Amino acid sequence: MKNNQAQHDVETASKKKQSKKFAVIFGALVILGGGYGFYKYSEGQKHEDTDDAQISSRISPVIPRVGGYVADIRVQDNQMVKKGDTLVILDDRDYVVKLEEAQARLVSAKSNVSVAAAGSSVTETNVISSQANTGTIDAQIESAKVNLWRTQKDYERFQNLIKDHSVTQQQFEQAEAAYQIAQKQLGILNAQKQAAMKQTASVASQSGINRGQVAVANAAIAQAEAGIASAELNLSYTVILAPVDGYVGTVNIQPGQMVQPGQSLFQIIPDDKKWVVANFKETQLTKMKIGQRVTVTVDAFPGQKLEGTLTSFSPATGAKTSLLPPDNASGNFVKTVQRVPVRIDFTDKVSPDFLKKLSSGMSVFVDVHLK
Fold first, then answer.
1. Cβ contact 364:297 at 8 Å
2. How far is it, in rounded angstroms, from Cα 119 to Cα 111?
3. pTM for the full model?
4. Residue 342: pLDDT over 70
5. Which pLDDT score, from 0 to 100, does residue 298 have?
6. Which helix (H) or strand (E) holds 268?
């Protein structure tokens, strides 16, 4: 009986000890959990973070400005190139022929100018000659008028003298004939003047036409020269050069392939500038402002924390700028939290050599310091 009571007391004491131990452990867990929760709450008031972020950079497409068959490819995948390096050469034979045609048109246009100028010179000479001929006729008309006046006076005088037989009939007839000849001579000269004036007008008109032909020929020269410049420019475009310094992406063309103007052949990724695009939930943007400090951790380099600055917010959500944006007015509406792209630039404390190690599209974790 005493042994049973002693055993019962031992068990009761053991249970009390276990209860106290459990209470202590539970209390400690509650305290730790509360402390951790308070810590996370406090941190949440000072930070906003997301792993929906990646490295971004400029991407320059290599685009031909003329079409043609690929004759030679001078670059390989992932190759470093400098601005102005030759990347691709197109077959230029068609463009060489077009340049020769333009040059031939220029020679023809210059020849037409020479012919038109010679014709214009001849007509100018004819105009001068015709004008001089008209001046000569004018002088002859003035002389004929004087002669007509003199013969008329002689005829009138002989008319009076023949009545009283002071002159012979022969003398009178000679005076009358001279008067009639002077009249006809003046009429002939007036007719010649009219013909000369018409000829002068005709020659002057032809001169104007020739001057117009010279102007047209000069315009043809300018057009031919512009054609040569265009042909030379297109010929130069058969050699495709690197637009910027950077690394070549995947080269997806082959020799003999036909390319078209505006077709993207491959891309060059410059290494001079990189930044981060982080897609934050719209509910995270309440306290975020431009200029806040950001800590960036790249998945490929987990041991290094990079400093950045929040520089801009996208004016539209990612869904709105997608290829097929959602239309909430159609079908059943289900509200989803949208994400807004935010740009983060690295500070000067991040070395350029390290930035060169970062590839566009790498995943990163960003932590925005709100205070």
1. yes
2. 13
3. 0.62
4. yes
5. 95
6. strand 266-269
